Amino acid sequence: MPENREKQWHSLGVEEVIGNLQTDTQTGLRDGEVQKRQTEYGKNQLTEAPGRSILSMIYDQVSGPLTLVLLIAGLISGLVGEFEDTVVILAIVVLNAVLGVFQENKAEQSLSALRKLSAPAARVVRGGQTKDLPASELVPGDVILLEAGASVPADARLVEAANLKCEEAALTGESVPVDKTTERIDDEQAGIGDRENMVFASTTVTYGRGTAIVVATGMGTEIGKIAGMLQSTQQEPTPLQRRMEELGKLLGWFALALVVLVFIAGLLRKEPPFEMFMTSIGLAVAAIPEGLPTIVTIVLALGVQRMIKRNAIIRKLPAVETLGTATVIASDKTGTLTQNQMTVARAFVNGESVDVSGQGYEPKGEFTIGGETPSHELDHALSLLLTAGALANDAKLEKSETGYNMVGDPTEGALVVAAEKAGLIARELNKEWKRVAELPFDSQRKRMTTFHQVPGKHHFAEVLNGDIVAFTKGGPDVLLELCTHHYRDEKIVPLSDSDKESLLQVNLSMAEEALRVLGVAFRSWDSVPAQDQLTPESAETDLVFIGFAGMIDPPRPEAREAVREAKTAGIRPMMVTGDHKATAMAIAKDLGIMETGDVVISGAELESIADEELAEKIKHTAVFARVSPEHKVRIVEALRSNRQIVAMTGDGVNDAPALKRADIGAAMGITGTDVAKQAADMVLLDDNFATIVTAVKEGRTIYANIQRAIQYLLSCNVGEIVAIFAAIMLGLGRPLTAIQILWVNLVTDGLPALALGVEPPEPGVMDRPPRDPKAGVFSGGLGVLIGLQGAMIGVLTLIGYYWALTSGRSVEVARTVAFGVLAFSQLVHSFNVRTRNRPLLKVGFFGNTWLNHAFLASGLLQLAVLSIPAVEPIFDVVPLGWTEAEVIALLATVPLLLGELTKWLFRRS
Ligand code: ADP
Ligand code: MG
Predict the structure, then answer these.
(1) φ and ψ at 359, to 5 degrees?
(2) What is the average pLDDT across 330-345?
(3) Contact predicate 750/681, CB 8 Å
(4) Could you tell which of 411, 480, 574, 580 is best to mutate to test the pocket of ligand 1, judged by most ligand atoms within 8 Å of the CB?
């Protein structure tokens, strides 16, 4: 069907489109046909712009100040005839660039894997079944279902549009949503914005519902034609990454000044100019923390990958750091704190409460009153309730070999299942009671209405007096406001204020049992209301109340523990739900979110109080109930005005503003709409509250690990500077040659630094309050610690050097000893950095496998350099005797002893 690619689909009638694409709006494409078309049309995705090339990464690596310094050094060595040095320096430049490119490439890859993970899904009808599939699998002819919040997965011609509105700014620049229809448009040349019977890839559904037939996929879509290629979005650097860049620049200047200083001091001390020059270069290399930005990025990337395994996808890298500072988690109830496994357990009709048995989505269960089968009147009312509930409904119960599967909103799914328990099959009901119009659900109104043709034969002749019936379901309090009558004993009778009062009382007592309660009502119509009458204001009035359905939605078993963990970590969990106050409170208390002294604020109260009052009240609020998405924005603002760092969850289209405003917006992976996911910093693959807490823990660990890598690299650098600077100033000559400094800096340091970046979480990470976001990386004594530990390494190196010199050994031997002490004491020191104040013996000395490996690898490399005769001249090393080896070993263990001693003193103080 390649000729289809150029068809003007909007100017064809629905039948023509169906014929052209050989599909069926009821059953969709058959699987065999799908496969054929997948080979023909390829994947439904935009070809990605190539990522950063290896060449540009290499360029980035070698264009830094470090390489420049080294190249100049190499050149000068060559000029004065020291070709060996030139070769070694060049080798080190190459090695360093290769390592850098390798690491960066890995970081880049894991970040681009992230982008793929958050790719959108599509709801498709294929082979008569409704399923959710990755959007990339769509082919022309596929029948897709659209609902509010979905991003349109491909270009498609609408065959059904119920109040469907799309926001097409990505394509047309117009941000006001467009009303969609199914009618044919005569003008073949109509612009994209005028093709109201089409939906386009990369736009989003903001309201309503629709069914459409895919006409173009991938690069054949309008957005594909415009964009040509998807520009892979560059990740924003995190605050820490930015600070490290700045630190690097600062230290670069510092290095330069130091080099000049040492060079002059050396000349004054009558050191040979060339050697002095090389030493200064080495010092510069020591002072520039070249590896730091890359290490920060790698630790971030590795951490983000670990988070994926824990079901948290980070969409914006800075969120990793923010997570560690979170002080409040404002979470949805339904699905996040609860299992979202709704089951109708109770119905209330005709003044009686009916128990419904059965579990999960399997449509098997009994309706009983106090163990007895209901009477005829009750049965009648019950089947009206169930029929209405199943019809004002968009969920689909699919049976598969493994059991029952629900596609759609679990709240609605529960009603479909309940109806089927009474033999009322939604799929069949929908054929008899054809849906002719609807007012879709939105979380502002908290209800929805569908209009149906009343079939010729049915059981409700006494009460349905019109050709059309409208069924409305929604929050009971909201719904009862709209009811003027109720259904009693197969009759419609007026609903008095006291009736209303007692029904609200019933609702309340059901809600207090943690049931999620929906009310159901109907209204008869002579004909489908005209378009201008088809609004909530005029159509959802004068309703006849039928009854309530109360569903259980058990709390997630892991949520209680997560709430406790959050509280010990100084993070306040808070429930923000559209559900009834009593239901919300029952669950909040059960989970420990709400404790004595905490209060509940309802959406209505929220509206009546000013921002300042809210900011004050929110300090003691554990639950917000019956709130709308707009309220969430105010909640975030109020918390932020109290200097809280807020993580907030959301799923719907209207949640997007609150998700953006929160410090960490977390969208639901399963029930979340595409719009919410796009606005979020993080996606919870399992919709689970506990996942947020885990992510916070990871966030804290990642930050601590970055600090460890920084602490290690900088303290080593300080050590080198101290040793060289002090020796020259004391007139002891140069304790290390340039090559030796290069080697330690670029080879033996790097591995332990990386390994420290993947330390497992410390047992206490969730026992302390959140980090202050304004405190710098070096706060809390880290800066001082780096200085002290650096001084220790420097002094140890000096001692080694001094001992060899004063015991009559040659300067070459003394340098070799210094070289050995420096390298090994740094390696030993890496274990100090694992914990700040807990004894290693208690923590487990070898708890970080990566560090053990890094220690071994770097240690063996250093041993090789010191003992293989062939390489000795390259590193200005001479063979050592046993005494020297023992001195090195002795001095190299000092960091550990000192480290443990200070930790001990620190704990005692
Ligand atoms: P939540 O899911 O946290 O309760 P929502 O904004 O999704 O918040 O829903 C708000 C209220 O609207 C619910 O408490 C319920 O009373 C009602 N409601 C939810 N889903 C539906 C639906 N599909 N049809 C009718 N009413 C609904
Ligand atoms: Mg909901």
Answers:
(1) -135, 150
(2) 94
(3) no
(4) 411
